[in-house]
Target: Polypeptide N-acetylgalactosaminyltransferase
Amino acid sequence: MASLLTAKNLFFVLVFSLIGLTYWIVTVERDPSNDTAALEEELMLINARDPARVFDPNGTPGDMGLPVILPEELSPEVSALVRKGWNEQGLNQFVSDMIPLRRRLPDVRDGWCRSEEQARRDRNIGPGTLPPSAIVIVFYNEAWSVLLRTVHSVIDRTPTELIDEIVLVDDCSTMSHLKDQLSSYIASLDKVRLVRSSERMGLIRARLFGAKSTTSNIITFLDAHCEVIEGWLEALIAHVASDETMIAIPAIDWIHEDTLALNAQNSVKYFGSFDWSLNFQWRAREQRIKSASKNGTVFIHPAAPYDTPTMAGGLFTIHRTYFQRLGWYDEGMEIYGGENMELSFKAWMCGGKLQIVACSRVAHIQKRGHPYLREIVGGLALVRRNSIRLAEVWLDEYADYYYETFGGRSKRGNFGDVSARKELRRQLQCKPFRWYLEHVFPEQFDPSRAVAHGEIRFEGKTQYPLCLDWPTQLALVGCHGTGGHQLWYLTKQGEVMRDDNCLDYDGKALTMYRCHGMGGNQAWSWDPETKLLKKLFFDRCLQWDREFSLQVCDPNEPNQKWMMHNFKPNNL
Ligand SMILES: [Mn+2]
Model:
């Protein structure tokens, strides 16, 4: 398992030890007798000390989504507080706490959205005539300021007629501010209802617990660390109101996890994708916009709703009846992870649609690390188990390409009983996964069309077998036979691909680069006879001699020989 000691792994070991150490220092070494008055004084100083850095037009930090940047010099007490926030929340809670629970955000929608909204209202489609939605927000040990800013943003920036109720689901939090303090705070808020679970359910079951506790026909899910933008819910509801099988997703803007600045430049430029490890990914829309305007005779505005093959998972609007018909989530899945893919695949495969409503904008804090999983023993193994259930039920013959990412089908382990989920799929008469790939996500790399896939093994003389490995830097390390960083695909276009990244040679440097699909620096050929891996155009072959280089091709040079597996010449 030499690959365990790759640079990336070492980096993570280092980072986690540092986090552990600082946490220890903060919790153990902190003197509880420190007087809080001095601390408060310093906080006021932070606010006042450097007005150029803490941009603050109305005396309120973070107003209009502007960044709050802490001074570089902080007292040990404040530094400890800042670190504590990061450790517990995966975001800069200290900064969040400085920002009022109700802050203004700019209306970042495309101008087209406001005219669409007005046109709808002129046709008498709007608040008062559109069906209202329940808004379900699950939280677990969320920071007070982060959770309440989510709730207030919804109340302040949503027409009240569109809100059936706001259901806060406490997934058995342990932090004291989420007990009586929260109950009494929300008692004064109109339409907000708090339900609590007496045991940890996990995000997946907690969302369903909240959804099933409402009677609303339309359910909107939000994460507990969001701030909505004017017009967000109206656009979502208007889009699903007349189409029961439509799942509408807002464009997700980014609240910076360190400064809590609103960054709303890019959200509508992406659609939801996935890699063959079944991780959610974003992918640029550019090509899709181009080809739509090429084929179409009707101009489609870029701010109009657009198809997305997958969803990130936390934010969407769905008809209760449709969610129910699709079998809700797979409740055999634990905590979180994989449920977003399940809903995405089955919505498309079973006759529905998934679209991003670009006029609905919700800003979201992407936390660092996985705070939701942190206290779960074997949290990341649970995500894999969920994904295996997903693959078993929905991926057909493509399931094996997922299993190869961790060493194959024999390494699946115990994933529980999926027979009820398979029966659900049969009853709904859903289409095959291949149909989904061809019709919903044609630009996705299809591993069944790979010319070769598996490890790429060095055939020169070495003490033990070495394989091409790419976590963050290209390396040659001991072959481990369990996929991961050693799982490669040779595509029809000659790309040597791993996780959407391709082996790239520009005449000088050999690197891994995001695959661009245009050949050039990323076009290679592999000959199963000579085992040479040749860079086309430069007419050089990949050689390893304690380091990588490209040399004049020589079929008698053992250091230029590379073994690829599952060679399928018909795919050339
Ligand atoms: Mn989230």
User: Anything to note?
Assistant: The pocket of manganese (II) ion is lined by residues 223, 225, 314, 364 (CB under 6 Å). DSSP finds 16 helices and 25 strands in the chain. The chain has three domains: 111-371, 373-445, 448-571. Residues 7-29 form the longest helix (23 residues).
